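DM from R.C. (forwarded with permission)

"hey, sorry to bug you on a friday — could you get me a structure for this? deadline for the figure draft is monday and I only need the backbone to look sensible"
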Amino acid sequence: MSFVRRLKQSAAEHIGELLFCLLQQSPALPAALVGKIDAKYGEAQLLQRRLLRWAATDEEMSPSDAAYSLLGRNDIDGLLLYCFARGGFTNRVAVDIGAGDCLNGNTANLVLFHGFSAFLIDGDERGLDVGRQVYQALQPRVAPRFIHAFLDTDGVNELLRRNNVPDEVDLLSIDIDSIDVFIAERLRIAARVVIVEFNNLWGPDESFSVPNSPGFQRELDRFLYGGASLAAFDKVLTAKGYKLVAVSSSGYDAVFVRDNDDFKRVPQRSLRSLYDENPVWRSTHAKSLHDPIRSRPWQAI
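My reply, with the result:
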């Protein structure tokens, strides 16, 4: 487990901040900065390979043992590697719907360290511009595709088809704080691992989403008016052949995998058990119980 602790230490030393320095320097980067980035990249790549081997062979290892964050938020990087270590990679393609700045998300670690090609989709051109600059500077093995688009359920599959997204991919990430669960339900691509951001004002027994309204924009005050509960995602994704396996320490990201032989060594978890183990989710849910946000328009799923 020492290399997992070292991975967490690498994250604590802000490798992400080193990458953002690339955006603030002239084309001729100082040699010291280049050396520092190269050293941290080399260490992180070696340690992650060791993590993959450990997760693939140690039957006693749990997702929480692998949890860490290098580029993604919270502990998503480790949770995803745990799933792929036990279920294997295939085409190493990721589709990221709601990619943000394309670096502090769910796919950057896989692109930069594990040879993934990625389709990075977002409605904010500014975030995609940040991603273009970062990946142009870092030159990953496969350059991502950047797609500027606001998605709705009627047009999402056509958008993916026009951009030559494969019918089967290793990873699908959905994080648009909007009609996410309806996008997940309508998508025709088959992903082996799915990560979603859910609205944690709802508890494990509450299956709700904002209505499926074209052009819906989230509202954020004390609580988010947007997205859907994890119970809603679980209902939709279970019907599509997935099983729930983890919730991140943030209390609002959840990981699903295909419920098939590939991932038989990734244990399924219940909504209730994950809720009971997650203090952030429990706290947010408790604080929301008497808040006016619950009287906003929500659709039962």
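R.C.: lifesaver. The longest strand covers residues 190-197.
me: no worries. Residues 25-30 have pLDDT under 50 and may be disordered.
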